Amino acid sequence: MTKPADQLSVYPQTLVGDQLLRFLPSADALRTVPATVYAAGVVVAFFLVAAVAPSLLQTHDPFRTDLYATLQSPSLDHFFGTDQSGRDLYSRVVQGTGQSLAIGLGAIGLSIGIALLVGVTAGLAGRRTDAALSRFLDVLLAFPNLFLALLFVAVFGATTTTLIVSVGLGCAPGYARLIRGQFLVVRNSGYVEAARALGHPYGRIVRQHIFPNAMRPLIVMITMGVGQTIVWASSLAFLGLGVAPPSPEWGALLDAGRNYVTVAWWLEVMPGFAIILFALSVTVIGQHLQDRLEGRVNP
């Protein structure tokens, strides 16, 4: 006679570690990875090195001014040109990578934390709690995410901490809605219903079945969200509500260069290019992870 535990073996794996193993490709799968994903990985690796050890990639002192070299266009000596103080723009972009990534990671971490608290509660609680939290999320989603961030920065001032909190709060409602929906889907799935029919305690079902399977898309959300939060933080900085110059944070570079855009286009284009390149690269990687997770490519 088949044991109840054996009957559940046909259902999806329930351990978090087992879920994470789905992201580890085999040797055959590596040969089928698109070239764009490899290129995106190289770009992200470059920015990670720039964040951890910027001196390895810098060609000049990013804080050294040279009034004889102000507003020089891109050249072999200055890859991204120089700014209004004669500082090498490429080295400043590299130097600012760590701060920009810290803002992006901090904002997405705060956002996911709030979203988990609200989304898990709404997805696992009773109908009244779910309805109340859903209406609360509807109210927050009625406002543009950037508006919430602008409001927070305008009230508490423009610092790195407030930038992280404001962007994190702005992203949280959307992520909470996604997490809530994922928990509802898993809670009503067939293998969870089978576990209930077999008499498993609800706490065990949540711990071993609902929570691990509902958290599967979290890695994709974090990967794609980092690029999004960096873009939003840079947008706030461009509006004068971010980290103030002379910080080399990417948004601050955009803010500092906007007054010279008619005579030195590279002050806006080069930091903007770095932001777009990083955001696009993490999005490509995140999309590939999502495709693998949903079985659209070989695991």
Automatic annotation (TrEMBL):
Transmembrane stretches, start-end: 35-57, 101-126, 146-172, 218-243, 263-286
PROSITE patterns for the chain: ABC_TM1
SUPFAM superfamilies from the UniProt entry: MetI-like
Subcellular localization: Cell membrane
InterPro entries reported in the protein's UniProt record: BP-dependent_transpt_permease, MetI-like, MetI-like_sf
Keyword terms, alphabetized: Cell membrane, Membrane, Transmembrane, Transmembrane helix, Transport
Main localization, broad class: membrane
Topology class, membrane: Multi-pass membrane protein
Nucleotide-binding found in the keyword field: no
Span of domain ABC transmembrane type-1: 97-286
Highest taxon above the source species: Bacteria
Similarity section: Belongs to the binding-protein-dependent transport system permease family.
UniProt-recorded name of the protein: Peptide/nickel transport system permease protein
Annotated source species: Pseudochelatococcus lubricantis
